[in-house]
């Protein structure tokens, strides 16, 4: 069952791309690259990595998405990466247990719950699609520790409008 949670601002190092939905793996693999680059500098992620959906294209064929790894302080990892912060505020949160294949249905369930509860998402609709302030998939399970996707936990956290 979804709940409303307060989240603090969270710094992260990210990688952003606009891809077709079938190109999401390309962006998701950047999480491991960022974690590896941090490890080379003797640093650990400050929290669980995530994907941040920025723009869902009007044709639902493209998405602008960020792979993000929380950090304690900004760090320069090169031209492909940037430092940013997730905004503080109230978020609707639901946890999906199982393979990432189930995230589409879990997202639909969270959006339906939000409609039923009459929550206002922090998003705008523009000519090129839906722009979200913070629509997150937070990967709580480390696949190196738990290789079976059936045992993975992913939090869906969508920021509410102020």
UniProtKB/TrEMBL annotation:
Superkingdom of source: Bacteria
Signal peptide range in chain numbering: none
InterPro entries: AraC_E-bd, GyrI-like, Reg_factor_effector_dom_sf
AraC effector-binding domain location: 1-161
Protein name per the record: GyrI-like domain-containing protein
Native species: Amycolatopsis silviterrae
